[in-house]
Amino acid sequence: MNCCRRYHRLIFHVEAVLFGACRLFVEYCDFKREKIPGSSGSLCGCLYPDGYRGKDRIVLVNTGRIRGHQLSTEERRTTAAHEAGHYVLHCGNKESAQLFFRFTKGPTFCRKAECEEELFSPMEYQASVFAACLLMPRKQFVSEWKNFLGSAAKVAESFCVSESFVRFRAKRLGCE
């Protein structure tokens, strides 16, 4: 499924939103070919809050193979939003008593294994919840969930995210 190619009222260009709201640049590249520092065969995305390639605040999303699989358009959108969650929630230049973790300098990396729910660290969980809220706002999500009678596949198409990410959001909202 590549739902992002067709127009849907709930889908937006995540790159434009992240730049407009946070001044985060999003770039897509093959991490292996580009020799991204700190990357390995399991890296989905990374955030360089202090700059990389001459740009401050940049999110890189891997277009290459990750354990033999390329990220779908839906997974790339989710990865970009997840990395933005790290920037908004965890960067040292942000102050919030509600957050448990901060990093101050250097990049953060998200590996596919870290994005599997049973293996979440608290920081990864927070970034994924942020991404789910950004890509699937509560009111619109609940409406689509009801309209499609809980069909994760149809809701995923509405928001251009993966079915597993829809189930992640549904569980947190008590829809399942």
Q: How many structural domains in the coordinates? A: 1
Rg is 16 Å
Which of globular, elongated, flat, extended, rod-shaped describes the shape?
A: globular
Fraction of helical residues: 40-55%
Main beta sheet: 4 strands, mixed
Q: What is the string of helix and strand elements?
A: HEHEEEEHEHHHH
- Give the percentage of residues in beta strands: 5-15%
Number of strands: 6
State the helix count. 7
Straight-line distance between termini: 23 Å
List keywords for this structure.
176 residues; alpha+beta; four-stranded mixed β-sheet; 7 helices; 6 strands; globular
The gist of it:
The protein contains 7 helices and 6 strands; from the N terminus they run αβαββββαβαααα. It is of the alpha+beta class and 176 residues long.
Structural notes for this entry:
The protein has 176 residues and is an alpha+beta fold. The chain has one domain (12-136). The protein is 42% helix and 14% strand. The protein contains 7 helices and 6 strands. The protein has helices at 14-22, 31-34, 73-90, 122-135, 138-147, 152-159, 163-173, and strands at 25-29, 43-48, 58-62, 65-66, 69-70, 108-111. The strands form 2 sheets. Strands 1-3-2-6 form a 4-stranded mixed beta sheet. A hairpin with a 2-residue loop joins strand 4 and strand 5 (69-70). Helix 1 runs parallel beside helix 3, helix 3 crosses helix 4 (122-135) and helix 6 (152-159) crosses helix 7. It is globular, with a radius of gyration of 16 Å. Mean pLDDT is 81; it is low at 93-105.
Write the layout of secondary structure elements.
Elements: H1 14-22, E1 25-29, H2 31-34, E2 43-48, E3 58-62, E4 65-66, E5 69-70, H3 73-90, E6 108-111, H4 122-135, H5 138-147, H6 152-159, H7 163-173
Parallel strand pairs: 1-3
Antiparallel strand pairs: 2-3, 2-6, 4-5
Helix pairs in contact: 1-3, 3-4, 6-7
